[in-house]
Amino acid sequence: MTVKNRNLYLSVLVKVKITLLKARTHWIHITVLAVVFIGAFSYTFDSKLAMLGDNASYFMLGKALAGGEGYVNISSSAKKPSNHYPPGYPVIISAVMLFSDSLTAVKIVTGILGLGGLILFYFLACKLLDNEFMALGVTLLAALNAHILWYSSLVMSEVPFLCFSVMALFFFTKTDTEKFNLKDKYVWLTLLSLISAYYVRSLGVALMGGFVLALLFKKNWKSIGLYIGVFALAIAPWSIRASNLGGSSYLRQLKMINPYQPALGQADIGDFIDRFFENFSRYITKELPDAIFPAFEPGYGQQATGGQWFAGLLLLGIMIYGIFKLKDHRWLITGYLLGTFAILMLWPQVWIGVRFIVSVLPLLILLLIVGLYQVAAWVVKRANQKVVYGALMSLFLLFQFGAIADIHNQAKEKYSPGWKNYFEMAKWLDRNVNGEAVVACGNPSLFHLYANKYTLRYKFANPEEVLKHLEERQVDYVVIDQVYGNTLRYLLPAVQQYPERFQQVQHLTNPDTYLLKFKR
């Protein structure tokens, strides 16, 4: 063997050895991640139905698809086609229902998607940081984040969207952004993941911001055209369907001053400007600190303090610093985050909470850790890097354990008396009223799951309009509950103004909950 051949052989041998060592490291890290997440998921798992109408709606849409009824609202007597939620997550639910129609089964599959998303995020973090140990630490922090854990056991689209959006980002990092190559399998895997993410949650359009910005800096115009063109073609069927059904309900809500009080009318330019600044203020002072440090109470509804402004702006500043300290793909991450928050700044102010940023939480945690690590390494230059990194990880974990314990306790609690009576009334109706009936109530989706009757929401209007609406929709029963403020604001005044039109059928106490027969 010549010296040249021997050197080539040794070089290949070293590369194979390095590849095998990396693969071994990845498998060890994935095992650790899986064990930690499964343990935390099991500890915080809540088998109850969440008090969110969306989770019941997703469940029913999945049930309708599994039953061959189409993408329709089966809680409505008209069984109208649904165009509020994209069909991605209900399709996943319908696939689960081929084997089991239990709520718990759907929740477990959502948790599995959460684990899948975190494993993908680990590989994405390896790409962004070029450091497997650091990538594992950041991913473990995301796996133990109380908000991500809580949404992982809900029948909601946040965690499935996290999975598909991270998948799209990861595959994009595997593409050659310098060239236009239709034969690159990762380009098509990226597009498939992007489209899947959009059909799970419309916020997936923000991913295009990251792709376009990353390709823009490479001046890869053909690839930009490919991504935009394929994406536009893929979402066209859903857009056309929504248009034929009267337009997107999300857009209609977006144009309202308050979707829960339609009487306030449509938002104008001034309202959107106010909305932007109010949302920006709240995300900086409430949502961002609450997302990262859920142990602290954000105090929604209260005026932001100077301390909250300082903490929020400091977090934002460190994250921005973290973006520019990434090893690679900083414009991809910048574009995606800018696209996400640009959309959220236009959201109606009543839509509050960490829910809307759960999908980008792992990225925000990564950027914060990178920024803090760089600052700490600069301050203590001679300190061991692993010690500095370990100290940061430990500090962040301390802020998660209390919130995780709270979720565990919440999972073990029973429904509050108001909610218990709401569901008990639905069960009573199911047992005692045979045949079809139409019920007007605060949350049609949740009530339908237990009542197995057609349901609808009463109109948010004055008593005369409420009564007219009940007549038009041929309502048989109404529910006066103690859990929805709108029931007291709209439905109860109609009952009080026209008592002769309602007859008490059932009354539950502590708190008072009524089922009334409506005399059409």
Overview of this structure, please?
The protein is mainly alpha-helical and 520 residues long. It has 20 helices and five strands. The protein has a five-stranded mixed beta sheet, with helices on both faces. The N and C termini lie far apart (98 Å). The relative contact order is 0.09.
Instruction: Give the percentage of residues in beta strands.
Output: under 5%
Order of strands, widest sheet: 2-1-3-5-4
If helices are DSSP runs of H or I spanning 4 or more residues, what is the number of helices? 20
* Rg (C-alpha, Å): 26 Å
**Structural class of the secondary elements?**
mainly alpha
Distance between the termini: 98 Å
Helix content: 55-70%
Q: Give the CA-based shape.
A: globular
Can you summarize this structure?
With 520 residues, the protein is mostly helical. The protein has helices at 3-44, 53-66, 88-97, 103-129, 132-143, 146-152, 158-173, 185-200, 206-217, 221-244, 249-255, 269-292, 306-324, 330-344, 361-379, 385-412, 417-432, 444-451, 463-472, 485-497; strands at 438-441, 454-457, 477-480, 502-508, 513-518. The protein has 20 helices and five strands.
